[in-house]
Specification:
With about 100 residues, the protein is an alpha+beta fold. It has one domain (about 5-95). The chain has one helix at about 55-70, and strands at about 5-15, 20-30, 35-40, 80, 85-90, 95.
Length: about 100
Amino acid sequence: MAGDPEIIGGPTPIPVLRAPGDIYRWKVQNGSAEQHVYVQIADSLRADAFEEPLRSGIESKGESVLRKLLASGNVPTRIKITSGGITEVGVDRRSRPCAF
């Protein structure tokens, strides 16, 4: 029986040398399939560069964006969070703005 997609693990920091910013991986149960969703947070939004309460907001941003997408039934492959907005990147590698 297929249920709503839900987060079952993460965030796990992913060390990547060539990508700007921080990348985290979450595990999502999507029906019978387990999927990984990667969230890239831009270098300019590094949590350790800010004071509270903004620091906590940045640290939790990836999960809050992912939860909103899952609530709409959408499980993206990758999400980019920048000061310009949120972009969802699918398996076809084409970027499209994220609609909230």
